[in-house]
Amino acid sequence: MYTVIEGGVTVAAGFQTASTAAGIKYKNRKDMAMIYSEKPCKAAGTFTTNIVKAAPVKWDQKIVKESEYAQAVVINAGIANACTGAEGMGYCAETAQAASAALNVPESAVLVASTGVIGMQLPMDKLKAGIAAMAPELSGTIESGTEAAKSIMTTDTRKKEVAVQFEIGGKTVTVGGMCKGSGMIHPNMCTMLSFVTTDIAISKELLQEALSADVKDTYNMISVDGDTSTNDTCLVLANGMAGNAEITEKNADYEEFCKALNYVNETLAKKMAGDGEGCTALFEVKVIGAESKAQAVTLSKSIITSSLTKAAIFGHDANWGRILCAMGYSGAQFDPEKVDLFFESAAGSMQIIKDGVALDYSEEQATKILSEPEVTAIADVKMGNASATAWGCDLTFDYVKINADYRS
Amino acid sequence: MYTVIEGGVTVAAGFQTASTAAGIKYKNRKDMAMIYSEKPCKAAGTFTTNIVKAAPVKWDQKIVKESEYAQAVVINAGIANACTGAEGMGYCAETAQAASAALNVPESAVLVASTGVIGMQLPMDKLKAGIAAMAPELSGTIESGTEAAKSIMTTDTRKKEVAVQFEIGGKTVTVGGMCKGSGMIHPNMCTMLSFVTTDIAISKELLQEALSADVKDTYNMISVDGDTSTNDTCLVLANGMAGNAEITEKNADYEEFCKALNYVNETLAKKMAGDGEGCTALFEVKVIGAESKAQAVTLSKSIITSSLTKAAIFGHDANWGRILCAMGYSGAQFDPEKVDLFFESAAGSMQIIKDGVALDYSEEQATKILSEPEVTAIADVKMGNASATAWGCDLTFDYVKINADYRS
């Protein structure tokens, strides 16, 4: 079992970060970060399924697939380097060159990630100056990791990081992560930008397998607005410095690692959903009693992406008809006249629907439950034992405000 | 060719309407309407594909399928009679009984339609009193039709009606329609409540075929919020009183009718999109140069349902990256680096993207174009000759306001 500890990407042995205000687009704040590992890392990644892929996504897919090792990640906020053609691809190579020179690592070991406005070109002079400024400042402190997590934010209101520790054969293994993501969030394969570092020793194949399996239950189960980004990237770097015997098969150690990775990814995913653009509440939806996992996933994601349901959550309104409606158009088959529905939060829990029809519940009590910063809806379709959990947020005035004029 | 004329469902020969303030849920306004034909009608219908179907949808599906004729429609606003179990189905039968007695038509010739809050039961005493009050007031005037169109509104801000006339063999044929719909609009098979009346003589089979084909290009191509309602219903009643030789095969007369029906349905569909909850602009999206109609439909619908794109339209912001992004996650295959994108409106037109990359366009001019009440985006994917047009609206503060507390 793992223990949750303080910090993010710098707590695993051998990992350092730096961050700087490069002035790429934001004023008066940091907008670049760098992750560096003292030793070469096995790297795994999952990326957006949007066929409009940003240049850094294409770059990282190549590195993860073809390079034996990765050792650094250069991240910028403000400009996404998406829809930037051949020029944008060239900037990824230039970034890797600059980091390679500054850190004395091969260019093929440098991953890059960008987030921000689509369609603008990166100011490479500022990006290179940022890399030069960060390299001498690399540090493995918790504070340095936290600064990095802040630097990659766009419309995020909170930095997002988490870390856990567990033991393998007497060796302490650490897994930590940070991410950013607030809008254009409807991951499909992975989410916005998420970076996980670990000192575990594990084969590259199993690292990728563990990540690919886990994103299905974590990043792929959140949605802020139904828009799958061009830049979604999740990278995991494992440098082996924990000193455990390298994991090369799916044994008990692998399972322990998967559990820790799941906690880190799920926590980061929920932090993104709970910090969705303009949102006032994390909205969790559990579908239980499903006949298959796929059915439960389809139903729960349909509910968290329903604009009408999300607006009702913002209004603390137990408008369960919209939830049943969203289940009905999801494409999944079920009997609406068997559905039970419950709401719960720190303020209590209550059943709203039994067998598809409303109970004589107290609207006042329901509103009280729905007024908490984290609210859960549980739908039981009574067909089997499969279940799924999805996370989203409410739809608010501020979501519209933020997105009606994001570019200016 | 057809001519657009004044009026709605009462202009075709033999059709009358009445409306009343039955006090079902709204105060101080009409909330019930009735359509009646002097002669029995062939009836066709298309209905929601949501598997959570409101009781009136199930009732009408049975009538359209099994009854030889229909002669009346009873409509109420305020309560949707959805998720109301056996009790709700019983209310449809009671409504038909009451209308049957009041109008001297068979129960099997009475269609019913409801729109409003999901999950509440209808107050049948008020509904029956409404039917009794309306029956003696039936009238074929244009004003009566307009009053009916107003009575069925929920969050709509404008009544929606349209009518056209054309000739078949020296006989004047009229097709008129009215509809309501503003939120929970993402039709799949048909849209919210739409009623089309015509005096054409046509076989029941061809009437249904013409409608089923037409909804694919009209009601199924609009979206306000991505939520497919439990109550979507489109009904067409044809009473044959134009005196034309009954259309029983797909001849030139059938084609003329299809064109007129398409105009009526497309006009009503656009009126719904342009009156989407809280919206300030009708947003039209044309995808051209597609390799298939299906591809063009998928791409255009993905754009009009993108929350981020819709928020940008509200902000008059030419944030084309969101449009390309929405195309990219639609599931349709295309080459992002070949896409051209144009914006146009009454204020002018301009190209924004050429071959996937932004042109050096004037943001000021783009904002001017996007500030009109009707704006169009045209995406050319340069793969073939197929195209599709979809209609939606912008995402605004008022959409959230309306839906955060719709029930109170």
Automatic annotation (TrEMBL), chains A, B:
EC numbers: 2.3.1.35, 2.3.1.1
Active site residues according to the UniProt entry: 191
Sites where the protein binds substrate: 154, 180, 191, 277, 403, 408
Coiled-coil regions, chain positions: none
Gene Ontology molecular function: L-glutamate N-acetyltransferase activity, acting on acetyl-L-ornithine as donor
InterPro entries the record matches: Arg_biosynth_ArgJ, ArgJ-like_dom_sf, ArgJ_beta_C
Primary site of residence: cytoplasm
Metabolic or biological pathway: Amino-acid biosynthesis; L-arginine biosynthesis; L-ornithine and N-acetyl-L-glutamate from L-glutamate and N(2)-acetyl-L-ornithine (cyclic): step 1/1; Amino-acid biosynthesis; L-arginine biosynthesis; N(2)-acetyl-L-ornithine from L-glutamate: step 1/4
Catalytic activity: L-glutamate + acetyl-CoA = N-acetyl-L-glutamate + CoA + H(+); N(2)-acetyl-L-ornithine + L-glutamate = N-acetyl-L-glutamate + L-ornithine
Pfam families: ArgJ
Site entry (Involved in the stabilization of negative charge on the oxyanion by the formation of the oxyanion hole), positions: 115-116
Keywords noted in UniProt: Acyltransferase, Amino-acid biosynthesis, Arginine biosynthesis, Autocatalytic cleavage, Cytoplasm, Multifunctional enzyme, Transferase
Subcellular compartments: Cytoplasm
Keyword Membrane: no
Function in brief: Catalyzes two activities which are involved in the cyclic version of arginine biosynthesis: the synthesis of N-acetylglutamate from glutamate and acetyl-CoA as the acetyl donor, and of ornithine by transacetylation between N(2)-acetylornithine and glutamate.
Subunit structure: Heterotetramer of two alpha and two beta chains.
Family: Belongs to the ArgJ family.
Record's protein name: Arginine biosynthesis bifunctional protein ArgJ
Natural source organism: Ventrimonas faecis
Encoding gene, per UniProt annotation: argJ
